Amino acid sequence: MLAALGGTATVGLAGCSALLSDDEEDDDDSTGDYETSEHADKAQAAWERIIENPGPDAEDTRTQAYVEIEEAVRDDMVLLPTHHGKGEFFWYDYVDMPKVGALGRHHVQHNRTEVDGDTELNLINATFDELDPIMSTDTASGEVIAQIYETLTTYPAGVAEIENNLLDSFETSEDGLTWTLTLKDGVQFHDGRDLTADDVVYSFRRLAESEYSERVNFITESTGGLGIEHETDDEGGIVPDSLGIEVIDDLTLEVTLREPNPAALDVLSYDGFAIVPEGLVGDIEGYDGEVTHDEFRTEMANGTGPFEYDQFSPGESMRVVRNDNYHGTVASVESLHWEIIEEPEAKFTYSMEQNADFFEIPTNQYDPELIDAETDDRGRESGTYGPVENDETLNYLGVPELSTFYFGFNVSHVPKPVREAVAYVTNHEEFIEDVLLNRGFPAFSFTPPAMWPTGQDGYEGWVDEWPYSPNETDREGARSVLEDAGFTEDDPFEMEITVYETSPAFQDMAEQVREKLSGLGVNVTSQSTQFSTLIDRGEDGDLEMFSLGWIWSWPDVAYGHFGFEPKNTDTSKMPGEANGYYLDWQENLDEEA
Amino acid sequence: MSRWRYFFKRLLLSVPVLFMVMTFIFILLRMGPVDPVAARLGPEASGAEAERMRERLGLNDPLWEQYLDFVTNFLTFDLGQSWVIYGDMEVTRIITFAGPPTLWLGFWAVLLPLFIGIPLGFYAGLNPNSGGDYLASVGGILWQAMPNFWLSIILLAVLRQTKGGGWFGFDWYTFGPDITGLSITGTPDLAFLSISSIDVAGAISIPLLTGVDWGALAVDIKLILPPAIVLGSASMAAELRIGRTAILETINSNYVETAKAKGLKDRAIVWKHVFRNALIPLVPVITNEAFLLMGGSVIVESIFNINGLGRIFFLATVQGDLPLAGALLFVFTLLIIFLNIFQDLLYTIIDPRVGYER
């Protein structure tokens, strides 16, 4: 009790001191002291070219612009990528399931999973609290929702190649603005109703209009979203029934976008676009609803997926049973059960008791030596792991995921030579091996190699050209940039690294940066805060060097690069008009916005 | 001042404490550095969305209005809703499913010190410097030295490896009630009581205990024993040591000498005089254990994956679910205030000197 209270109080204090120091800095150290960046204009211009050339024929222009943004980020060192995520999965021999792809296990529908000798597949999940697709923003609920509800398009097993699901075919107009979508015939919801175009309109309207929707921007915004035609009211909300979506017949509908969007089919695979029967919940204008939103959130579900809702005890477990009427491959297992476990030791115990069939292994029990795996053409390592504690040898799969973890810099607080010095002393390989125990892949760009705009060869060339002594601790390189800027051991630059509490790896890495820079002219202090505190301080422009990550919901480079548009990194406009990374990169633009 | 006036004065004093706690929680919630809206939406959401949620959750109202709402809501036990962990779920509903497992754990964790710690301490005190005394005292110190989280992890590791036969063929899963298909972690069912309601005159229904499923009860007890042993162990050791000292002090006091001189039998001295007096220093220790149990349950419930108040409180603080954390803090405060009052009540009953000379 007291310990917990103490924890809360510490966070409170940390936040307060942050606020105080913010005020101080605003007075004496605004921005003019150092040349902070040179390439912001290049990034701004590149981003504008991406926006202005959305059509399918302008792909080369966009590719070039994406690379230019990466170059500007690298040359100004506004953000140092550390690693790309690696998803690791372990399962017992008697389970047979499709190989998970780069987009993660929450895309895996278990209708193709087989369990030898059992009718139930047992899984472990994290705490989640909603089954309403428009509220789902976490992978824990996403994994469950993917079994119950379906979207028009999908990434089978999370492999980054889009496929039609509820969609039968589509056509686009010449200008790329109008999409005619035809739905699959004969799809039924769990309660027996037929899927029609009206259900799609209703589901999309909920995502845009419902007060419970947590990702309205995914349907309304053009970059990082679908960018569907709509009207807004005075307060910025969507005018009811104003979405550019029109029913042609029972199975056909027409969607009008504001700007051509090459990633439209990818965006449609996001959970929030899952189709629910028309009128199920009364949270948008024109519908009374058959069930209350509270019931819809946790006590019932009605989708088109291979499994139906059975039972949900929040915080404990969730169970779904097979849908024998499924339009695709009907599942071989009769039910899926997720035990909700947060603590690593409990997870490990549960899996070693063979209560879970498919699971992850916590770091403290993990031994990279036990892996015996080969890499496939998607960079996935598959093979075996073990023997583990209970003498079983497990199946193993290591997947390079579409995620990037990084140290970002607020450029108005940290001068460029210091940022470069951090990059010089960072040894990516050593970090991956020592701190992450090889559970990650070194990152030299924000965009993961699997979706690098100029392909695999282009990516290799990029890594070869990386200027800051990749995979070595180059203290001399760091010393020389710092000395040129006048930072020496006697007159050092003071910098604070803020990392979030839930990532011990970043805490270790911040500590390494501190040690490697000691005596070179940068005095580092590191501090770990709650994730939400870090976000808050980022939005206040109150961070110096900080750790964060970005996970792609669909493989589109723009859906990561929008955050680099210098004008969009203006923390003084956050969190309202700007939603980029916390860099303040707009400070050195030639013409102020 | 009479004993009972003293007691009621203590009772009244808890009112301002309650208000101070509520104000503290409010300040933490509304003015603290953690923005629950950001915590809930995550970094991908846009500012407009955060603003809409702020409006929906009433965070744009004037502060004094929010404070008044907050206090009246809490006093009428309307504890608000969770924002992050169980989005929009009523805290009172969370307590109805998370409270019982915590009480079940707490119940067994308290039994341990009461029925093992104190008797052992008394035994050690009555037989000072014997082999048994040394064994109990040293064992107690060792127990106390082992932190809960460490003990939990070790216990889990040892127990799970007995599956299918461990050392000397001991298999915890088949020992006693069979839990082969279950896990040693997880929330106990607590469904061993069958309760049915009888309608009286068609209007009022009275719940009636109609049966106990002894098998399920045995399983629930077996599942709760490992975490309860961990949770109760530190208190057990503390009570053992204080019990021993208390007995020694009482035995060597003058009135015991007098009683001996009067020719009273040892047994009568121990049962009638020594025990009652030795209990006095133990009362605050025992009630303080309750606070420790609440704090300890945060760790033990997390590691044993029991979906109780402790684990939920931990998740709420870690994930920035301030309304939930605040409401649980309020519930814990109520419990602590209640326990304090209960402690005063016990004092007033056991110790006639309380409240006389003030």
From TrEMBL, chain A:
InterPro entries: SBP_5, SBP_5_dom. Residues 20-43 are annotated as: Disordered. Residues 21-32 have a biased composition (Acidic residues). Residues 161-558 form the Solute-binding protein family domain. Gene3D superfamilies: Dipeptide-binding Protein, Domain 3 (3.10.105.10), Periplasmic binding protein-like II (3.40.190.10). Keywords: Signal, Transport. SUPFAM superfamilies: Periplasmic binding protein-like II. Belongs to the bacterial solute-binding protein 5 family. PANTHER family: OLIGOPEPTIDE-BINDING PROTEIN APPA, PERIPLASMIC BINDING COMPONENT OF ABC TRANSPORTER. This is ABC transporter substrate-binding protein. It comes from Halosolutus amylolyticus. The lineage of its organism: Archaea, Methanobacteriati, Methanobacteriota, Stenosarchaea group, Halobacteria.
UniProtKB/TrEMBL annotation, chain B:
InterPro entries: BPD_transp_1_N (IPR045621), MetI-like (IPR000515), MetI-like_sf (IPR035906). It comes from the Archaea. The keyword Metal-binding does not apply. Keywords: Cell membrane, Membrane, Transmembrane, Transmembrane helix, Transport. Residues 99-343 form the ABC transmembrane type-1 domain. The chain crosses the membrane at residues 12-31, 103-122, 134-159, 279-304, 324-342. It is a multi-pass membrane protein. It holds the Pfam family BPD_transp_1. It is found in: Cell membrane. SUPFAM superfamilies: MetI-like (SSF161098). Gene3D superfamilies: MetI-like. GO terms for cellular component: plasma membrane. Belongs to the binding-protein-dependent transport system permease family. PANTHER family: DIPEPTIDE TRANSPORT SYSTEM PERMEASE PROTEIN DPPB-RELATED (PTHR43163). This is ABC transporter permease.
